[in-house]
Amino acid sequence: MIVGVASMRIRYIATAGIFPIALDADHLIQFLNLEAIPRMGHSILFGFISIPLMMFFAGKKDYLLGAVSFSAVLAHVSFDILLGGTTSFPFFIPIINKMITFQGYDWVVLLLAAIAIVGITRIITKNHITEHKSQET
Length: 137
Ligand SMILES: [Zn+2]
Prior knowledge:
By secondary structure, this protein is mostly helical. It contains 5 helices and 2 strands.
């Protein structure tokens, strides 16, 4: 069981580590000069899309994994702002159909939001597991 928990964590770390890098694949689309909406990967919508996608690839309803992948999008945007300074993303697409400009310490807000989402989901899923255990006994 301890090994199981450990391997789960490694997968979460891997997801949180590799997925944000994969997001920059949409920068390549820009280079190809396609008519795609620029930086689609840098949006809340993409974060939401990534949740069922990640669960599909994991082969189960892993809400924590979903939270990690959603937060990975926020964390990625956060680091893009941190490294690039003032940066624009279609962040609220399709609700607000224009580029949102982030600057200064906006990355701190996004990073804290990412951490909060994972933290809250972890607490919720933990309670959920305990509920199931108490029902079994
Ligand atoms: Zn990026």
